[in-house]
Structures are given as C-alpha cells and as structure tokens.
Amino acid sequence: MSGFDVESADRDQLAAALRASEFHVGAIYQVSLDPIIVIDNDGTIREFNRAAEHTFSRRRDKAIGTPVVRLFHPSAQERFQKNVSHFQATGGEGSMVGRNVEMQCVRQNGEQFVAEMALQPIPFEDAGRLVIFLREITERKRAELALKDSQRLYASLVENLPLCVMRKDREGRFTFANRAFCTMVGRPLEQLTGKTDFDLYSHELAEKYRRDDACVCETGDSFETIEINRAPDGTERHVHVMKTAVHDSGDSIIGIQILFMDITDRVRAELAVRRTSDELKQSNLELQQFAYVASHDLQAPLRAIAGFAQFLQHDYQDQLGANANEYIRQIVGGVQRMQQLINDLLAYSRVESRSRPCVSVDLAVVFDDVVNLLRAEIAESRGEVTRGELPSVAGDPAQLSQLLQNLISNDLKYHSVVAPRVQVTADRNDSGWTIAVRDNGIGIESRHHERIFEIFVRLHTQDKYPGTGIGLAVCRRIVLRHGGRIWVESEVDRGSTFYFTLPDRSNLQP
Amino acid sequence: MSTIAALGRPAEILLVDDSKVDVMLTRKAFEREKLVVNLHHVENGVECLAFLRKQAKYLDVPTPDLILLDINMPVMDGHEVLTELLKDENLRHLPVVILTSSEDERDILAMYRLRCNAYLSKPVDANKFQEVIKLINAFWLTVVVLPRK
C-alpha cells in the first residue's frame, strides 16, 4: 500500500465525514421549529429556513437577497444594525452576539411579534457570516403580562381591603402581611417577616393563636370566630377571624392564612343599641307601673270626694242652703271628669304597654263590632254609620277597634245641626291600605289639623263638647305603632275626613 | 243548709283594705242599706291572715262569713293573701270577694286564677258604690248558700 493511497484513503474518509456533517446540519436547519436565518456582512439574507418562511410568512426565494432588518420593527432595526456593526468591528464582542435578546419582529402582513434572538458568527470563505436563531415568544410574553396583571390585581385587593390579611409558615413565622395588618401592629412588613405572634402579643394571647393555628394546620379545616384581640399598646379590639390552611402545589399544608376584621365599632354600636333597648324596656316597665299606680291611687281620693259630697247631700239636704245641691253636683261632675281623664290617660299608656302580636284582622268585622258598641251614641244622635268594602289587614285587633271607635265616636260627637253621617272606606295603595273615616260634622280649621293629634289638645269648651283631648292622641299612637300615619282633611262646616294608612306587613313594636 | 240572712244573726264580714276613706265609704254604705252586719276591718294581708287564724290580738274574733279583699295594700297584698288561703286547709273554703279600684285585666285574671269568688271594682260615684254594696248583700248574704264549719 503506497503513502499516496493512504493519503487518498484519508481524504476520501474526510470528505465522506464532511458530507455527512453537512447533511446533518442541513437536516437540522430544515427541520428546526425555530427560524434560522443566515446573513452576510452587509446584512443581506443568504439562508432562510422553513420555520422562518412560516413565522415571517415570506417565501425563501423572496427573502434571500433582501436586507434582514426588514424582518424587524423599525424601533429594533437600528439596534440590530449597531450590534452587527460592533460585532464586525470587534470580531465577536457585540452586545447581541452570543446572548439571547428580545427583538420586535414584523411579519409580511405587518403583524408584530416578539422573538428571542441568538446570533452565531460562522466563518465563510473570508467574509464572516452570521446565523440568526429566532424563537417566537409572543405567547410567553402575553402570559407573563397577564400574570403580572393578575398579581397586581390581587396585591391591590389585598393591600386595600379593610381587612387584615397575613400568612404564617407552619412554625408560626409571618411570611406575609398586608398594609392593614402592618398599620395595626405598627411595623412594616420587613420587620414582621420571620417574626411570630410571641413577638407581638402577650404570651397568653400568642399561645392561644398558636393553638388555633396548629389546629388548622393539622386538620386542614378552616376556623372562624369572633374574639377579643389585645394590641401591644393595650387597646382591645373585637375581631372577626378566619383562618385557613395554605397548601403548596403538591397539596401539603405549608402554613396558614389569616383574615381578620376589626368589628369593634360594630360590637360597640350593638352594645349601645342593646343598652338603649334595655333602658327603654325598663322605662316602659316603669311607665306601666306608674299607670297602674295612677289608676289605683288617683281614684281612691276621687271616690272620697264624690262619695262624701253625695253623702252630704243625702244626709244633710234640709240643713244645707239652696245652692248646696248645685255645688255638690259640680263637685261630682268634676270628679267624674277627672276619672274620665285618668281612664283616657291609661288607655293612652296602654297603646304601648298592652300591645299584642300582629295578626290578620278583618276590618269589616272590627267595624261591625264598633258600631254595635256605639249603638247608644248612634241612636242618641240619630246618626248613620256605614262602610264600604273593608279589607283584612295586619295588626292588633283590640287597638284597631279602639282606633275606629275613637274616630267614629268623634264624628258622632262633633256633629252640626244635621244628624251625623259617617262613612268608613278603604283604598289600596302601593304598600298597604288607606282607610278614610268621613263625616258631615262641624269640620276643623286647617291651622288645627296637626295639633289635634297631640295629647290634651282640645278645640272646644267642656260645656259644648266634653272630652279629655286624648282620643286622637291614642289614635295617632295606635297608627304609628302599626307603621302607618294619620292625618285629617277638613274645612269648617264642610265635614272632616280622617285618613290613616296600614302597611301590608306591619312591624309592630314589641 | 242556710243563707246567712236565714241564720238570724248579723253577717260577719271582714274588710281588708288599707284606704281609710274606702273603709268609711263601705261602712257608711252598709249603714245606709240599714243592714245589720258586723263589719270587721284590717288594713293589710298579714293582719288578715292573723285575723282568720285568730292569732295575737285576734283571739276572740269570729270566723267571717265573707271576706272583702282589696288588692293593693302595703305589707302584704291581695295576691299573697289568696295564695296563702289556697294553701291553708282551714281557710281555703272561705268565700272571698275582691273589692278594688283596679280595673287592670292582669289583676282580674290573676285573682280568678287564685280562685277568688267574685271580682268587683269600686265605682267612684257614691251612688254606684252604694249599689254595689246593696248587691253584695242581696246576693252573698241573701241568696248564696255559704259553707259552715
């Protein structure tokens, strides 16, 4: 075997290896999923693989021979150019060369996208050429932005919530706290991270929190309670606490998340309301007691006055002067009026104290009962009391009866020269019923329309129309208790119409 | 079996009332009815029970045929008296008529629940009061057959 032959055989082998390598590189170049572009020194495209054709929607034969910068967005062109020039001047120390950079690229149709780019110089004949590898990262960029937005959203929510939010690891060390919590404990997050409840609260309180946390960590069950938290400065807060376990992606519990709300103001307000309500109940009870005592103790002296005056009349009739009978009559009359006053006042106080639960009341039945009760007055005044269709309403039957009785007996009392005509009708409104009690009586001046519902207000002398001035005050109290309102429309000598409303679902005060 | 009137002796009535005026009015009303009754008076529940049990100064008093009981009294009120009477085997048969100025429904219900025999309210008007006393006589002392023990 000659040396030539050996050399020749080596050369053949070398050539074969080279062909194989070229073949491999060519295959890789063509099959690559990422664009690969080869440019020469002046930036002209010399190779353009299939992935490049697809990504830029340009055909290879149209791309080759054109400047590569056309593939980039104008904003990126200069940068690219500068880097290539630098690379050529320094022989490979350019900022883009050998490193991955993001480039804004443009497809044939003008659509932009972001690609990561790597440059690799290759020696070709005497002039250097560059291989450009590109990888479209539009989707990744979009995901990154979306993630950033989402993080911003949650951070903004957590930081601006009027709730304290924090997280601890399984050892009870703070890993996160929002602004509300940092403000509450008076420390920035940097100073809280790694600390535990034992650094913030009394030993006792920290122990309690540790136990609660441990329970959540062990069971994975969430925990919710309302408790008192004593801040480091000693102030007490009522807090509504929710604790939940924090899981890692493998679903094991790595810590605990705590949300709590300062509800001190609400608790205080509730306490204040309860106190007021208790006081009111107490005051109502005392008022009832007072009314009871008044009914009993005020009547005893009245009985004495009336009784002995009458005995005086009986036993000493002959020995008394001529005026004596009249005096005694006045005494007895005064006592009777006083007694009426006491009874009416009691009725007024009982509107609240004797209230019964709200039931369905047929106003037609109530009306018929009232007319029956008033039949003596109706007969005496030769009056006529009629009604239209009356509905069933929600209310206290005894009080609604009292209400109608007071209004109708007023109509019978304050009649003009003609016999009284009273009519009770009902009208549906949006939220309930409006009841009208209309008469043909003497009427009421408009300046008195509000006043007449006040207690003890009377528009007439005892001689003309006896009364205590309590009847309409009782009416107003009853209507208010049923959640309605009462008013009058009237003109002197033109009769009066009293209206009251009864809402559908009456909320009777207890 | 007999009514009090038929016994031919004055009726023994115990009036339990703290109001001197009411006692005078009641006494006067009985007088004006020309009724022969022995009207005994005590001014509260404790005295009433002592009277009925013939304790202390009440050793020699008769057992009343009828008790007229007020409700509101100091020391011991009508509720407590009725409660005590119900518990006392020797006294629970005694007829009790409530005579009070209270027209409070709660009082009326409470007294009947404690088994009072009648509930009367004292009218302010003397003539009407007179009428009530007259009716007490006409019914309780004349018509009603009372137990003898």
What does this structure look like?
The complex is a heterodimer of chains A (510) and B (149). The longest helix of chain A has 34 residues, at 264-297. Chain A folds into 5 domains: 1-29; 32-141, PAS domain (Beta-Lactamase, 2-Layer Sandwich); 161-262, PAS domain (Beta-Lactamase, 2-Layer Sandwich), CATH 3.30.450.20; 268-338, no CATH class; 355-503, Heat Shock Protein 90 (2-Layer Sandwich). Chain A is built from 15 helices and 17 strands. In chain A, a hairpin with a 5-residue loop joins strand 8 (223-230) and strand 9. In chain A, helix 9 runs antiparallel to helix 11 (324-353), helix 11 (324-353) runs parallel beside helix 15 (471-481) and helix 14 (397-413) packs antiparallel against helix 15. Chain A is α+β, with helices and mostly antiparallel strands and 510 residues long. Chain B has one domain (10-141): Rossmann fold. Helices cover 38% and strands 17% of the residues of chain B. Chain B has a 5-stranded parallel sheet, sandwiched between helices. In chain B, helix 1 crosses helix 5 (126-141) and helix 2 runs parallel beside helix 3 (78-87). The mean pLDDT of chain B is 89. Classes of the chains: A alpha+beta (510), B alpha/beta (149). The A-B interface holds A 292, 295-297, 299-304, 306-311, 314, 332, 335-336, 339, 354 and B 19, 21-22, 25, 28, 32, 72, 100-105, 122-127, 129.
Summarize this, please?
The complex is a heterodimer of chains A (510) and B (149). By secondary structure, chain A is an alpha+beta fold.
What is the annotated CATH architecture of chain B?
Answer: 3-Layer(aba) Sandwich
Mean pLDDT of chain A: 85
Number of discrete helical segments of chain A:
15
Which CATH first-tier class of chain B would you pick?
Alpha Beta
Q: Pairing-aware structural class of the strands and helices of chain B?
A: alpha/beta
Estimated structural class of chain A: alpha+beta
CATH domain topology of the largest domain in chain A: Heat Shock Protein 90
Percent of sequence in beta strands of chain A: 15-25%
Number of strands of chain B: 5
Query: Number of DSSP helices of chain B?
Result: 5
Question: Biggest interface and which pair forms it?
Answer: A-B, 22 and 20 residues
